[in-house]
Amino acid sequence: MSITSNQFILFLLIALIVYYLAPKKVQWLVLLAASYAYYLLSSVPAAAFLLYSTVITFGGAWWIGRIYQKTGDRKTAKKITKWIMLAAILLDLGMLAYLKYTNFILANLNSLFHSNFSMLDLLLPLGISYYTFQTVGYVLDVYWGRIEPEKNPLKYALFVAFFPQLVQGPIGRYKTLACQLYESHPFSFRRIEFGLERILWGIFKKMLIADWAAVFAEAIFADPDKYAGIAIFGVLLYSAQLYADFSGGIDVMIGAASLFGVQMDENFQRPFFSVSLTDFWRRWHITLGSWMKDYVMYPLTLSKAMNRLGKSAKKVLGKKKGRLIPICIANLIVFLVVGIWHGPTWSNIGWGLYNGVIIAFSSFFAAGYETAKKKLHINDKAAWYRLFMIFRTFAIINISWYFDCADSLGTTLKMMWYSVTRFEPSMFLQISSGKLGTAYTPYALLTLGIGILLLFTVSILQEKGMHIRETLAKRPLALRVAVCLLLLTAIPLFSPMAAARGFIYAQF
Questions:
Q1: Would you state the torsion angle of the CA atoms of residues 265, 270, 275, 279, taken in this order, to the nearest 10 degrees?
Q2: Domain co-membership, 162 together with 203
């Protein structure tokens, strides 16, 4: 069930009506029923995997909590609970690994050893990459003593299955999300208004920016020789497509959750205004980045092995450089994991390493950069320098998209070469824009341009500290309704198709 479909709107409306008509004490049960209904409507067989993950991690965390409670001494108990924690996590991650990466491993074994393993017909459940990380984080939080384990299995099931987060995140934390899911929420017109505005804005970004950008980006990357003169636009349009698609979907989901009084974590914070790659990853897919930092990066850097490595590195490189080695290696490992998490392909692994190497390199030579700026008398707070850093970061990010879009390394290198040697914008007019063919292409490009300009304008206002919906709420009701109607009318009138394309990060 696509989150931009009429079926989803109807489902959301029915769930809202039942939720606010139900007694406040059982509202969370309505949410649980709605969440499993949504999941079953999307994929009945996949519900077994969702239930498996829920049972394994609930049971593991509950058992850890019981041992802590009985012993009263966490240090002694950790010798026992460590194995329970590891078993729960391995069983949970094992399901994800089996379903998502088995065929990738078999294909590579066939390629390396000329074997003939048959590919398996495996189901990839909706949202498995998101709820697996969410449940693993929960088990670790209980093990580390950050939270108390949930005693009610149905309440924990709601935390795992809450339907707005299943499609493409955000990756929720029990400490901030659970209390909102379980408490009652009175009906609020302001909350409904804000939620609907967020949903409309997300659908606008998806259908008028992402879907139009996809028409042109896909055509260019599908035939790079034919469209060599606009190769650079192919990657720029993919950048627009990916951001509008992913952030638009998140807007819809955060808006849907807020209708029920649940405020999920933000997942984007205007990433294309970033001044470094590290800054970009603080702004893009924020919940994944913070999850990796808390559950992979910190445990790695604080581990005994990294501590020994740091001591050895200090003897060879000195204290300042030596202490950075464990951090740099941890960054490489984190982004390798992020690449693998994104999908079972070598391009995703290469993409992860590309980001990890740049961030590790930047961390290692950060002191040198500061020295160079002082010697060159560069004021890093000057407007020109900030713009330079933004454009530099944007270029670094877009280079990685070449690997993401192209079907082979050869095509990637060819597209890069065309991007710096050929420039013929008139080639856009050769790309069909749908049923009307090339005749509508100029209008399609104009629609896309206006959509991107509007998104850019809103992003600048937000970057300056303006809260768009709060500002709009202070205006007369007639103006607020007019803005919503304008968006509502523009979406079906100017989008490239009657129904939105599938989301890039759906079924992930």
A1: 20
A2: no
Query: Are residues 140 and 195 part of one domain?
Result: no
Same domain (yes/no): 219, 160: no
Are residue 228 and residue 159 in the same domain, yes or no? no
Range list of H helices, 183-264? 189-204, 211-222, 231-259
Number of domains in the chain: 2
Structure tokens at 147: 């939270």
Instruction: Encode pLDDT of 450-462 as tens digits.
Output: 999 999 999 999 9
Give which of 382, 150, 159, 201 is closest to 275, Cα–Cα: 382
Pair 340, 309 in one domain: yes
Residues in a beta bridge with 268: 284
Query: Which range is least confidently modeled, 150-164, 465-479, 494-508?
Result: 494-508
Domain annotation covers residue 1: no
Q: Report which secondary-structure segment, H or E, holds 87.
A: helix 74-113
Give CA–CA dist 96/104, Å, rounded. Answer: 13
Residue 508 inside a domain? The answer is no
Residues in a beta bridge with 284: 268
Answering whether pTM is above 0.85, one says yes
Q: Are 326 and 232 in a shared domain?
A: yes
CA 137/CA 353 separation, integer angstroms: 24
Which residues, at least 6 apart from 342, have a Cβ–Cβ distance to it below 8 Å?
A: 348, 351, 352
Token pair recorded at residue 369: 């950069």
Q: 128: domain range?
A: 6-186
Kindly state the tokens that stand for 371.
């020295």
For residue 365, the SS3 value is coil
Instruction: Judge whether 283 and 268 are in contact, CB under 8 Å.
Output: yes
The answer to whether residue 208 sits within a structural domain is: yes
Question: Do 216 and 135 contact (CB within 8 A), yes or no?
Answer: no
* Within-domain flag for 127: yes
Long-range contacts at 27-35 (CB < 8 A, ≥ 24 apart) = 27/184, 27/185, 28/155, 28/158, 28/181, 28/182, 28/183, 29/154, 31/158, 31/162, 31/181, 31/260, 32/154, 32/157, 32/158, 32/161, 34/163, 35/158, 35/161, 35/162, 35/163, 35/166
Separation between Cα atoms, residue 14 and residue 9, nearest integer Å: 9
What's the pLDDT tens digit per position in 378-406?
888 888 999 999 999 999 999 988 887 87
